[in-house]
Amino acid sequence: MPDRSRSPETEALGLAHVATASFVGARVAPSAQFWLSLPGGVALARSARRFGLSRGYGASLAAMLQGVAILGPLRINGPLTQAITAPLIGRLRSRPAQFASCLALRLVHYAVLNVVAVWLLLGGLDGYVKTYEATTGWLGILPQGRTGALVVGIVWQAIWAVFFTTVQLAVYRRALRQWPAGEPGGDAGEMPAPAAAASARDARALAVAALIAFGVLLSGTSPLLLAAVGVWLAIAWLIARPDPQVARVGFALAAVLAASALAGGVIGGLGFESSLRRAVRAALLVLVATWLRGAAGPEGMRDVFRSALDRLRRLGWAREAESLLERLDSAPRLAAAGRALVDALRDVPKRPVPVADATAGWVAAEAARGGATETRPTTRLAARPLDRVVVALVFVPLAGVVGHAL
After folding, report:
1. Beta carbons within 8 Å of 247's beta carbon, 6+ residues apart
2. Which of 283, 313, 385, 400 has the greatest number of C-beta atoms within 10 Å?
3. pTM of the prediction?
């Protein structure tokens, strides 16, 4: 018989903990991102099946936000697909309905990502078509022109969506059927009383500044605009220094993304100057996100997310996400859970049945252990006067955008 001694709140927290650990592990090891994120999706599907769609998506959002608080917003696309599709798959029972809904959500996700990437890196559809023709025209077998570029791109994305949906659904269904009856891993018990309040940086001012900078960067690629944001970011970097390790990762990703944008534009014949400006904008977008995460720290980011969710408390999924985010485990516990997941899947063949069998046991055991053995201390936010300076300074490039528009 299933273990009924644990409360729904504790069980839901354990499943959200598993999803977070899986998604964090997948982002740390991107070469196996899809396979490492599947256990997190199984946990979210289980949560939606046990407690309803609202709680399932609340757990999904909490897991993603906790991962962003720990690692920043880099390399989230793999886990994000699981987070978007898993609760609905868990709630539905019919295989055709599960497949159709998962495939549709994947295709929408892919479409949004591709549209954003084409717009940011290549300047729009014309840039995409030119780059496509420059890289495929020499083959002599693929259709050319705008229609050919769109058809080939859509078909290619659809093939991958069908493949990943098929594997994902096979793993989910088998793992949920094979769920251990007793949910091994020990009795985590109920949540103990909250610990004493701890102080953390109030990162809400930094988040406001970063959002304004994002908006300015998305408004155009004029050299003056890019220079203004670059100067602001340099000053902000000195005032609110980010964690060095986070900064190194951010600089590396910014360099890769800028190089890709520059190469794509040059190959597509879009002009060196235009391609360089888009490359600089892409790098600045990454660096602004890197600065925010590195300067705010995990607890500061969590407080920003909780503050945003608190404004949406009328929505059930937002209330659930806020409650879970408040109590999810800290980075060291998640790292230990992630290592356990890597160990559990290290020697498992990358096929649906073996992965599903290994996943069900790990998810159930980790859900029983994680998330309920400690309560995170209540955070006391501490504002810093210099953070307000960062916000004030970001209005300089914003004023330039407004003046240019007028």
Report:
1. 290, 291, 294
2. 283
3. 0.82
